[in-house]
Amino acid sequence: MRICFILNPTSGTNRTQDVPALLSRYATAAGADFVVWPTEYAGHAEQLARQAAADGFRVVVAVGGDGTVNEVARGLLGTPAALGVVPRGSGNGLARHLKLPLDIAGAVRRACAPTFQRIDVGYLNGRPFFCTAGLGFDAHVSKMFAKAGTRGLSTYVKVALREYRRFRPVPVQVTLQGQELFDTHCYVLAFANAAQYGNNAYIAPRADIQDGLLDVCLIDGLSLTRAVRVGVGLALGTLATSGQAVYHTSQHILVQSAAPLGFHIDGDYVEDATAFEARLEPLALEVAV
Ligand SMILES: Nc1ncnc2c1ncn2[C@@H]1O[C@H](COP(=O)(O)OP(=O)(O)OP(=O)(O)O)[C@@H](O)[C@H]1O
Question: Residues in domain DAGKc (predicted)?
């Protein structure tokens, strides 16, 4: 079995590690037939992944955070190669959901001797996501986080607290499965394929990545008390039973908003829009876990 590691050299906070050397050491020890391809620019991982699949690599491993995982997975859609993950980001939502080892040695060993499964793939406004996507405050924070200059959890928390004082909910009309229509306000509207954003922040604790459905989580406003309760719910995995968020499951969701709202794909801000379509393709990606 041939394995291609696609490495984002800019991901992760530990810059002192020689990641290519570590990948080589652990993959050689596991007896793997492998190559390591570093990315040269944002978006490159998708191209490299497609190339690797065309070259016949059975497993193509994203070495990076959820942004790199999204790019590699996107490149593998419709190919016979399976996605592996060596998590190097700060959130690592998909790796955590799939219960992959979070350390390089363990993750490389797993990638070299995996079992294979298929997972669902979500799309928001035509863009594939594997973990979560959404509109509102979380997307707005991703946008501001990208501009922050530094990364990591502490910057994220700082940005989220600052933007909490500024962000206001927007009126939206939501249609589920072409029929159930309701008017509400969007503070956060999350579409969850996996249960968490990353960092064990469980936005949709009951989400099943193989059930053919997106879990839709709606938070229509966020007073200070409610923000604290939502924060606790995210951390403890109890948001779904806390009464602070409303949940639905659906394969197809349309949203019309009264004003432009930002949306994110796997934690990366994309753009603002007023019309949204979220849908799910069941079991559209093979993963090596
Ligand atoms: N060689 C490169 N140079 C610059 N940017 C890159 C390169 N390779 C990939 N990228 C971009 O870096 C972005 C961030 O990568 P990724 O999410 O993997 O790491 P991270 O930001 O450290 O992780 P996390 O999002 O979990 O904090 C990706 O969206 C990707 O497009």
Answer: 1-128
Q: Closest residue (by CA) to atom 9 of ligand 1?
A: 42
Q: Residue 57 has what DSSP assignment? A: -
pLDDT tens digits for range 162-220 = 999 999 999 999 999 888 788 999 999 999 999 999 989 999 999 999 999 999 999 99
Q: Which atom of ligand 1 is nearest to 198's Cα?
A: 26
pTM equals 0.94
Local confidence band at 148 (pLDDT 50, 70, 90 cut-offs): confident
Integer CA distances (angstroms), 272 to 98, 119, 141, 265, 288, in order = 30, 28, 13, 12, 34
> With the CA atoms of 269, 232, 13 and 115 taken in that order, what torsion angle do they form, in degrees rounded to the nearest 10?
-80
Answer yes or no: is the C-beta of 70 below 6 A from any ligand 1 atom.
Answer: no
Element (H, E) at 215: strand 214-219
Q: At what angle do helices 19-29 and 104-112 cross, to 10 degrees?
A: 50
Which element (helix H / strand E) includes 244?
none
Q: What's the whole-number mean pLDDT along residues 28-52?
A: 98
Amino acid of residue 179: Q
Alpha-helix residue ranges (DSSP H) falling in the chain: 19-29, 44-54, 66-76, 93-97, 104-112, 137-146, 153-164, 224-236
Q: How far apart (Å, rounded) are the C-alpha atoms in residues 229 and 244?
A: 7
Q: Length of the chain in residues, anyone?
A: 289
* CA nearest ligand 1 atom 11, residue: 42
